[in-house]
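Supplementary notes for students who missed Thursday's class. We covered one full example, reproduced here. Read the sequence, then the structure, then the short commentary at the end.
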Amino acid sequence: MTNAAIPMIISVDDHVTESPTLFDRWLPAKYRDRAPRVERRLISRESKLMSGLVEDPDGIPGDVWLFGKSAYVLRRPIVILRDVETTDETRGNEPVTYDEMHPACYDPSARLALMTDQHVEASLAFPTFPRFCGQALSEQTTDDRAFGVACVQAYNNYIVEEWCGDSGGRLIPLQVVPLWDAQLAADEVRRNAARGVRAVAFSEIIGNLGFPSIHDGNWDPFFVACEETGTVICMHIGSSSMMMPMPPGASEVISATVAFFNSYVSIADFVFSGVLDRFPALKLAYSEGQAGWLPYAIERMDYAYRHHIWARDEVPLPETPSTYIRRNVFGCIFADRHAIENAHEIGIDNLMFEVDFPHTDSTYPHTFRHLEQQFAGVDADTTYRILRGNAIRLFQLDFDRVSADVSG
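Structure (token representation):
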């Protein structure tokens, strides 16, 4: 395929490494003495990727986000370095400083330049320091919820005004919300919808974070707000801060291999909870879980619906699970040739593409070569829809609007 045959990507899952000045600039002055901050520390060489801050006077310099009782250590697997192509040899697990990062990790102008180089027109970026659905801003403010709301709003103001503000629409804002109160979350969705935000980060299994689950109407005010404003609920793998437990002594790579399981559980939970029946216009996008497994998951959920729900005295849904999945659920892929080849079975309008920059899984720095391999022999219409058309339609973007509306 030629360059002309592969349209530029609308990437629906990348990551922003937040500016160290975020809260200095956007948080009200009365809160700044306890705001999240970045400090340089010496990190133990023996510390693991998710072990948090383990200091050692003979350790490696690293920049750390400190907030309340939490410490988020910036490490090489989640960034790319200056003037170094990303390879297994340059990743490692070592702590990293902002000085060592490529500016595209934290500077929007540098990000836009790199996106163009990597055949990416637009990008939606999940949080880094607050974690994938901004849960740190809710978990570390239990003693002062007004402070928590201020932190959430400061983060969103940074994303909308500073990260995305001068990008001409190429950087797509992804907001976070207060996770302890569905009505406050709804209020924040409406506040941001008024300035054009059409995406919100949420947890794939919110109950695992200690907040109310999606059952018993707990999150209905939030779902109402998302439905009314056309705001897409974006759920990144691991946003529940809990993954499927591994066998004792198992290799850590197994966790990455079966990460899609969280998405599977979440989709089933949204379907069988009745949320998608009560909110038919709600849209759910699942990032970094791939989608090649979806045909079996759809088949299995339909089978379970027909053969098991009755025996367990549970109330049947008006429609089969497959109806809700194809109407409300979107899978996001970046290395899933199987999903591309089965796009019509999954739903040709239900797949979107992601680059995952600057994480280990990212297609950087060989994104176009990767696209040639993933979409070799795939017809132009399918390629267009997955790489950009479906995202344009779902997030109401101002790219190719006529083509997107026709293809949708």
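Commentary. Residues 3-39+103-407 form a domain with the TIM Barrel fold (CATH 3.20.20.140). The chain has one domain: 3-39+103-407. If anything here is unclear, bring it to office hours.
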